Amino acid sequence: MARTPLIAGNWKMYLSLAESVALGQAVAASCAGLTDREVMIAPTCAVLSTVAGAIADSPVILAAQNVAWEQEGAFTGESSPVTLKDIGVSMAILGHSERRHVFYETDEMVNQRLLGALDFGLKPILCVGELLEDREQGQTFEVVQKQLSKGLQGVTAKQLEQVVVAYEPVWAIGTGKTASKEQAQEVHAFIRGKLATLYEKKLAEKIRILYGGSVKPENVDSLMAQSDIDGALVGGAALNPDSFDRIIHFI
After folding, report:
1. What are the structural domains of the chain?
2. Above 80 in pLDDT, residue 1?
3. How far apart are CA 3 and CA 67, in angstroms?
4. Helical (H) or strand (E) element with 225
5. Is a pLDDT exceeding 70 seen at residue 140?
6. I need a surface site. Which of 38, 46, 94, 96 has the fewest CB within 10 A?
7. Can you tell me whether residue 211 is helix, strand or coil?
8. CA 243 – CA 216 distance, rounded (Å)
9. Which of 164, 125, 170 is CA-nearest to residue 144?
10. Catalytic residues
11. How does DSSP classify residue 199?
């Protein structure tokens, strides 16, 4: 089944307002005329509304790096899904390893955010992935299965169609180490198989699964050639317009 590739740039907590606008404009220019793939950027929350204006006349999708599960309330430091939608956000990255391991978000918290995003019309990207010690101890599949099943708890089959999954081995994020195309494909196929078990095979075949973890111009083509890799969640290389342009235009 043909799945539309998605190239997603996670800007993390980088770039000034002016730099963010310039990069947004550069990405928009890179996407001119693209019809066979989607491109998404996730700037830091503080610049989202301004970047939304910079990419307004382009097909670039705007995403948040996290989202609260309630429309409003006493949640200091959180971002309302309704407010995010108001400024042009349509997707949200949830369960990123930095949220899990730096800010100690649990599978239950990630699930709560994911359900909230769906309830308010945002498409979530659910991130899963193992630590280096998990892989060395042969627990990759166990960890990924747990994060996937708990993250999707309570998600209906209809809602799942709005979800993107991103496999990000934690040991490859920002380290320069990348899972080999064979390692990445193996876990992506495992994830699709688990989605088929949790839901049904026909639906699992529709779900896009992205690879993240030191994706760069030098390895994107080989990664994207794998049958179960449907896109990339890009960190550092997404901050450089030339690098990200090359990744967007993978062969």
Report:
1. 6-248 (3.20.20.70)
2. no
3. 26
4. none
5. yes
6. 46
7. strand
8. 7
9. 170
10. 96, 168
11. S
